[in-house]
Amino acid sequence: SEKGVLIKSAEVLEKISKIETFITDKTGTLTFGKPKISKFVKFGSITEKQFLTYLGAAEINSNHPVAKPVVEYIKKKGIKIPSSEKPRESPGEGVEITLKGKKIAVGKIIYIKNLGAKFETFMEKEIESFSKQGFSLTAISLNKKPIGLIVFEDNLRPSAKSIVNLTKSLGAKKWIMLTGDGPVVAKKIAKDAGIDNFEANLTPREKLKFIEKFKKENPNLQIAMIGDGVNDAAALAIAD
Ligand code: ADP
Ligand code: MG
User: Is 154 in the pocket of ligand 1 (CB under 6 A)?
Assistant: First the structure.
């Protein structure tokens, strides 16, 4: 996995030239999985200190790769991260906490929306503009109101495209990328890696479902699932 490709068993390695379809995860597999934060965007009149305090209180409970640099940044600013109650992480989606009676959630836009938050037009415009520039986004809500965004980038591994090309030259017909990220970023990363097919906005469970369905519909195809084991362990486990 040093090269970013975790192959489930030696057996798979032997089979590699027989594999017709590769299904791959994005974050940590095609990309480094080490997000670089470009900026924090605050909505409304909340102070930076308050905003970062809420954000830190939530992210300290998360295993998502972006949580670590976020927490580090906040600590470096000298902001004390309060401990919260009832952290609930939905892997690949976000985390929700209760802090002194306030509900704070951090995660992907759809996750925050599904928790009942409404994004105003100006917020949607910011989201669209950052996505179009290729940034990944995470939203933060306070009592179901969006209070800001984390704008970050996770770069494609330079080796990704050559691995895709190598498998194609060995006979692979199809690569499919699955990601929890939004469609705009997904499209860009897939294209840069030389992958024609992708599915965006998937939860880890939906990734698993996709693979199960794909295998059922293509019972005779040799399929390989590639991932870093983060949020996709279940999907990896059922792959060939
Ligand atoms: P992938 O499916 O490509 O591996 P992930 O499932 O890791 O991607 O993440 C998809 C999106 O989920 C990210 O772009 C990010 O916005 C969001 N996300 C999920 N959990 C968190 C969290 N705890 N903190 C911040 N962002 C999160
Ligand atoms: Mg992942």
Answer: no
Q: What's the chain's average pLDDT? A: 88
Sorted by sequence, the CB contacts under 8 Å of residue 182 that are 6+ apart come out as 108, 109, 131, 136, 137, 200, 201
| Pick from 17, 21, 22: nearest CA to 226 | 22
Q: Whose CA is nearest to atom 13 of ligand 1?
A: 181
CA–centroid distance, 175 to ligand 2, in Å, is 17
pLDDT in tens, 151-166: 999 999 998 998 899 8
Quote the ligand 2 centre to 59 CA distance (angstroms). Answer: 17
- Average pLDDT (34-40) is 94
Buried b (16+ CB within 10 A) or exposed e, 87-113: bebbbbbbbbbebeeebbbbbbbebbe
